[in-house]
Design a protein that fits this description.
The chain is mainly beta. Helices cover 6% and strands 48% of the residues.
């Protein structure tokens, strides 16, 4: 996929672009996705973004991806 570049202070929409979530019972949960954490990797130009999403029953799942990070 396309490399995501996140700059300190960018809106969260930059990190949510092209992120989707689907549940077999509830269907499309994309609008429920939240950024759980952003961890900048020391001495690198990368950050690990963790996303979380809840379904209607309150079950949560998390996924991570690495993005380019700029101050």
């Amino acid at each position: 996929g396309e490399t995501i570049v996140y700059r300190e202070g960018d809106p969260q929409s930059v990190l949510l672009a092209d992120v989707t979530a689907w549940d077999t019972r509830d269907g499309d949960l994309t609008d429920n996705i939240r950024i759980y954490s952003i961890a900048v990797v020391e001495n690198s130009w990368e950050a690990v973004v963790t996303y979380a999403v809840y379904d209607e029953a309150g079950n949560m799942t998390k996924e991570t991806r690495t993005v380019e990070y700029r101050k």
